[in-house]
Structures
1.
Amino acid sequence: MNRSPTRATPLAARTILLFGIAALLCVACASTPQTETRTVFDFMDTVSTATLPASNIALADRLFDLCRDLDARLNAHDPSSEVGKLNAADGERVNISSDVSTLLNIGKEYFEKSGGLFDITIAPISLLWDFSSNSLPQSNALASAIPLVGADRLELGGGWARLPVGFGVDLGALVKGYALDRCADTLRAEGVPSALINLGGSVLALGKRLDGNPWRVGVQLPFGAEGATLGVLSVTDTCVVTAGLYERSFELDGKLYHHILDPRTGMPAATDLYSATIIYKNALIADAYSTWCIMAGAEKALGIVESADDMECVLYTADGSLMFSSGIGSAIPFELTGDGL
Amino acid sequence: MKRSARDIILLISMLAIAAGWYALSRDTSANAVGAIVWIDGFRSARLSLEQADEFTFERGGDINVVRIENGTARIVSANCPGGDCTRQRAISRAGELIVCVPHKLMITLESVPAFDTVAR
């Protein structure tokens, strides 16, 4: 059991040295950032962020360029955009890109599925509303616009589209979702294993965080402070898309006017939902469902989401209640935060 | 000469270990950003420490009122026997905690942000 001091001392020194080297490596690792985040402010007039592994951060510029390009081509408010030209075609056939074709087909599909509640041909009405001016459109202008809405009148063929005279499409309800899906395509093609992209509040959570944990995505508390949340979802490889009355809205004479418009009345949808958050693998579809849920109201929205495979939702009603689809809390953990108490 | 070299190695190693320990444990000594309220072993709520507020937790007649102010959390009133939890000092560092044994309520602090991003 007795050991010679001449043998023990070098061994102890070597052991300590090894621990020291390990500790130095720990310091080096701890001080090296694994992810980087880029933020831009020029996509759809909102804040967008891309969190990527540090080795892939150069891709962020490519993603934002892709989003800006889509925004420019799909902007119904710009007469020179692809959508602007379709809207101004006076009943003529217009050649369209594959991006616009995808969106118009999805728009028609969800018009039918939603019984006309979700309608991308809302442009004659939506272009009359300016939510930054805090004023209402002329009622006679709205009344004239209502008959010019109906996605069933939109004709689509291989590479072309045609709208009746006076009709117009507004893809604002789908652009962020579609842009997220295109970002996901790019990231997967480049072999990026982990990324968190937030385009104006619509989120792509690709893979897991680099530490192996799920991404933690807060759900905004409607009409709360920026960053105040109802709760936090733990998600992996999916999208989280919210439609809410609190975005682009104003109050006039004690009444709230929000941007989710009812094609039947031309006015903001009368709904008992303040927000609908959809969790689904495809952001474009999640975008369509989130708006559809708001239009349908709380009672029907849960059934709409439950009937879709692998889709989950968090709904927040005007009376302050939270409603969840069946997989929230089990398949997708949702942690309530104090902000909503 | 040999002893002197060993001493230097020992000193460098100890400094490196101390630095490593600091790097690994710095989160637990950091200012917290969130208070987690556990009731009966379940994580019941996460309260941001960044905004002054007061929260009442009531379960089966057991009441604890948690106040958030100046980046700290404390229990300001409770109807537990003895009211020991209300006499515990305000906590502000990750790893600190307050316990109300009769009500099976515990407040812990964490330094990690509540979320990576927000969907809105």
2.
Amino acid sequence: MGELAAAEIAAAQRTTTAPASRGPGRGEASAEQARPRGGRRRRESVYQWAFLVPAVAYLILFFGYPVVKNLVVSFQDYGTATFYTGEAPWVGFANYAKVLGSSIFTTAALNTALFTAGSIAGQFVIGLALAVFFRKRFPLSGLLRSLLLLPWLLPLIASGAVWKWILDKDSGALNQFLEALHLVPNGVPWLTSTSLALVAVVGVNVWIGIPFNVTILYGGLQDIPDELYEAAALDGATGWRAFRHVTWPLLRPVVNVVLVLGVVYTLKVLDIILALTGGGPANSSQTIATESYALSFQEFRFGEGSALGNILVLISLVFALIYLRASRRGVED
Amino acid sequence: MSTVSIREGTPTAGRLRPRKPVTERVPVGRPSGLPNTALGILFLAIMLFPVYWMVNASLQPNGTTIQATWFPIHPDFSGYATALTQQGQNLGTSLIVAVGSVVVSLAIAAPAAYALSHFKVRGTNIVLFGILISQMIPGIVVANALYTAYNDLGLLNTIGGLILADSSHGIPFAILIIRALMGSMQSSIIEAARVDGAGHVRVFWSIVLPVSRNALITAGLFTFLFAWSDFLFALTLTTTDAVRPVTLGLYQYIGSYVTDWSSVMATAVLASLPAVVLLLVAQKFVAAGTASGAVK
């Protein structure tokens, strides 16, 4: 999960711990500053912009430049030779044609779709169930809820390492457990079978994403007034019916945000797949992101790696637009 | 929508019944209490099992551990000894990179957050939009471009290069969180200082930063964790053993056939320590930063 998720979580915690922001609105100081006219006003705004310059410069260098550079490189034959000769001839759309035409792309695109859909479905359903559960205030609920954040805070590579051992075919804890219950005859090759590797990777990613979903959805649930449930109970709606007719409709704006952010973050997941399977066996867990990594950093075909990266950006952008629309509708509500 | 009836029903129901005092806010439905706590502990135990398993495995005896016991009855610390011998330097590298990233991120994010929360300059919306969009950019795209740029600039395999790249995890987040927490800071103290003749830099340094201490600590803790956990840039922007964060050391452990899981898990535990510390400490600061309301 990405960094913005952390902001969302921190913000969600903020809304649940602090009642409301107080003090005068933000506009007052600036209204006062806007009064002076002409030169003074311009100088003032130059001073104010100076505070933003380092951040803007950083964003341009470390986010803007890579996007542009990637776009340029994707139209070049940029490979190992380029690092010696410094030459990267223009090849037009050849990289895109090559990448889209390769048999791995179909596999990687399908895997990306399955990985994203599976991860989001699992994280969201379990996350929502836990969020609803934690909404009942019971002894220790706050403590348990904050401890639940741990899987999300661990370095992905550390989680990957422990899961790799849990899912180990011969001595992994999962197989030991399943064999003890006689659910499977012998070691299930979770990470080494072409039919199971993607399932296993999705499972681990669900585990990582649950805390994020719980936290944001819990914050959304807290904003639904208890009175509505009381009123619904009077109308005979409790339990599932209360969830369906009160919780779900009122939670929809938060749900939209969680789902779209989840998709955007899941599309670019790389660490956990590299740690668990490396995209294998036989590309069975290869996604567009891991394939882009492999092309650039294992085969040093940066042109093709960039082209694939741009396709990923394009897919993310579509969901980003959906996100912006969803969040604007959320504000209007 | 099917909810309309209930939404419209609410005011009526509210009028018929006297409003409950806020303190009596008991959740509707089943009685909650200890059974729920037990259930909650069960859920948490399932979710945290991998973390337990990591600690348990790290305490198993070294060597060809085919079958680990379910409890570390006889804890063996040789896994940690191996981990510290083999990964000690990498842990140090991670620490330096993470601390450096905190310094860089806060130095860049704090002024920006102040400007975004208290100035009304043209273009703030564009900056915020840029931060949002930056989150949509896959790390591999950034790594692709940075590799070639770093290669030209001689920044591959350098601590400084990693610090700058890792800050891309923390800076957008730090700007957003500090801005959110600074929003509750009252403009009146800033105005008062300005009227007294203090310049922008002085106001920022002597008033805004001290008042925003908790916001800075919160952002700093998360920034540390992001840089410490970074794997992608460690993987792509280093090519030799010279500068090697612990995440990459761990990846190389599990990339080959693992025979000695206890030292791998000991390394994973050591790599996870900052997350645990953050979980215990940050909550307090996040809560404190908002509850205090900055000035009274």
